[in-house]
Amino acid sequence: MDAFANTNNNISFIPLNNGQRLLAMNEYLYGCNKKSVQKKYWKCIVNGCTMHIHTDDNDIYLCSGKVDHDHEPNSDLIRTTRLRQQMKQRVGGSEYECK
């Protein structure tokens, strides 16, 4: 069974200066690990955590790994990362795209 099957899979994205994005879901952050024609593979950004999720090319949640995170969720990290990136965008004055 999918680890997130019975939870709210509210996905949002945080643009980064390098043109990439972080995916935020259920108080965890993921970085895009690889991309195929039909899927994007996202890995938890915490060192050592093996949790991963898949989205389709339109960023719709598909599934997650069979194991759970080996750390607690961190909503503060998501908020501070989002705020930091918003400040950088205001200073830089440009929008960032997902590559």
From TrEMBL:
Database matches in Pfam families: FLYWCH
Span of domain FLYWCH-type: 16-71
A GO MF term: zinc ion binding
Keywords: Metal-binding, Zinc, Zinc-finger
Gene3D superfamilies: 2.20.25.240
Name of the protein: FLYWCH-type domain-containing protein
Originating species: Rotaria magnacalcarata
